[in-house]
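Same chain as my last thread, 209 residues:
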Amino acid sequence: MVNIKKYFIKKAMIKVAIDEYLAKNFYRAGYAGVDIQRTPLGSRIIIYAERPAIIIGKRGAIIKQLAQIFEKYFGLENPQITVTNVENPELNARIMAFRLAMALERGYHFRRAAFAALRRIMAAGALGAEIVISGKLTSERARYEKIKAGRVYKVGRQVETMIDRAVAHALLKPGIYGVEVTIVKPVKPVDQITFKTPETLQQSETSTT
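reply #2:
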């Protein structure tokens, strides 16, 4: 039993390490996440990104380098890498956090950039979203500013099934800014209550009879 626990812990730690490596080196490609699967031929690695071409590289040069890195430094056997596009990047917290961090580094005002990102998230169909930017925003004293739209869950089952949260960092002259993005996925909440009017009750009773 101990060996089984060690195996799964080691497997999870390798995935976390690879995820951190890809997030650090490919955030400008809109890196969104990674999935690692064991196959009889080796390891299959699926990388999700907004702009896969940046990760693939010219004629697959970067993919070949990544395969060597995964095998040499992360211990994956015969890594087969696939880079796939993210269908709706505005509903991916990591992509939106990286976008916002890059906008801050390009000189956009933090409030303007945050509200623009919030509008895009809600326009994509999110039930709610929250953006927190922290750092030396307006003075030498660090503080944070939070903006929110819709319904954002903090506790309960909804956090496990509906919430996507990510953190990114932007390096500016005053220092490092922290960006946290929380997105509530467009799925039906478990706490949603629907009230039936007398007309709908009468219709349901008529249909059953």
